[in-house]
Amino acid sequence: MTEKQSILGRIAQLTKANVNALLDRAEDPQKMLDQLVRDYTNNIAEAEQAIAQTIGNLRLAEQDYNEDVASVQEWGGKALAASKKADEYRTAGDAANADKFDQLAKIALRKQLDAETEVKQAQPMIDSQRVTVDKLKTGLTTMKEKLSELRSRRDSLVARQKSAQAQQTVQTAISSINVLDPTSELGRFEDAVRREEAKAIGQAEIASSSLDSQFDELMKSDQDVELEARLAALKAGSTPAPQIAPTVVTDAS
Length: 253
Known about the structure:
Blueprint: H1 3-15, H2 19-25, H3 29-91, H4 95-175, H5 184-235
């Protein structure tokens, strides 16, 4: 395989690469994109050098071709000039010089034929090289477009990955608290305070209930003393006066 064919094959392989399909099969798309960017960059650099050499060879071949074309014209002109000179000498009766210039015309015509042969042989090769160079240039342009696409995809992927990581961080933070109540920590503290308040209310009620019970006991004790006093008075034959305050009557006059 020639170097030219090798370049064309490599360019064809790279330009036909389906980036999306490669990414779908990749375990780590970002690493794969980074590797593809490096591969494309290296291959583009190599392709540019090889294409430059191919173009240089074409330009040299074109120069040789143009020189051969110029030689065809040049030797044709010399042959014509020698032939005319021979005719002039022959008209003048100088056969020796006529033959001499006719011989020179033949030499020029032989040189012209050789140059024409070079032109005919070089033409197909130059045409082929021109087609090849055009393909190489097109392939190189496509490779550079692919490289730009890869870099863009890589940058987009990196940005998406960072965004996803940020979202995961937020979701992790959210999942650490009560999703239904963003103030769940405050809510739990409030519940604890309310329990303490309820406990204090309960203790106050207990204390109040105990005090009322003591007063009830005291009143009950006073009543028992009164009952005992009245019972003793009855047994002694006297009727105890009820402890009711008399009504005060005022004179209206």
